[in-house]
What does this fold into?
Amino acid sequence: MREIVLDTETTGLDCSNGDRIVEIGVIELENHIQTGKYFHSYINPQKKSDPKAEKVHGLTQEFLSDKPLFHEIAEDFLEFISNSKIIIHNAPFDLGFINSELKNCDMSDIDENLVIDTLLLAKKKYIGQSVSLDALCRKFNIDISNRTIHGALKDAKLLSLVYLELIGGKQTRLNFLNNNESIKEDNNELFDLISFYNNKPIIPAKRVNININDNKLHIESIKQIPKSIWETLKS
It folds into this structure.
């Protein structure tokens, strides 16, 4: 099952008042696991960011001045998301900006039925508690120590881990290297054992020779154990 996790950074809070997207980041999940595939682009909004917004994402007008316009990346963006489920935190905000940009390109809106809003999931699960992305990362012990500024791709990766926790999965880190799906544990978190072993070849069992005398001694010794588990297994 393919899903994508999406985040944006913007010049301000109100797309209806002319605010634009300055960065978009999307990562791909397959069966809730990061595949390593992603879409990312900085975007020239052709306007200056609100000082409060710029403080959040750190993207200056000078830095963005030579970046592509949204219409130049729109087709590649839509091709990447395809018709997959889209995971967004506070979906009306990001979706409002994206659909506003698509409208400017004479393109169709993204279907809201494809969207899963993790903010709503978190609000239902943690009634009355803070459910910002930062708060949820702290709740699930996801490391955000290096998140001094927001970044669309970085936040999409964090959101993928939060999403996994919200739907009841175990927090994992999987690195896919050289297309060999090499799996390693990060921050002492649990392996995804099922995925790990499903990708391993079946190794035929080795034939083991048992010493008859040792076997007899073993059988006699377990008879002396009260309520032996061996007796339970035999029955």
